[in-house]
Amino acid sequence: MCLLFVSTVAGKSKFDKVAKIAMEVLNQARLPGTIRQCRCNEEEICGQQAIQQATSCAPGCYGSFNRVASNPAALQGCLNQKIPVLQQFLQCIIHEAGSCSNSAEQPQVTHYDFRRALQIGVARVQSSRGEILSSSSLKNIQGFANALLDFGVCVESCAAQQNVVGTCFDRNGCNPRFDERKAKRGLKSCMKRLNWKQHAGQLCDCALGAGVAELNRFCPILRLMSAP
Question: Which domain of life is it from (predicted)?
Answer without folding.
Answer: Eukaryota
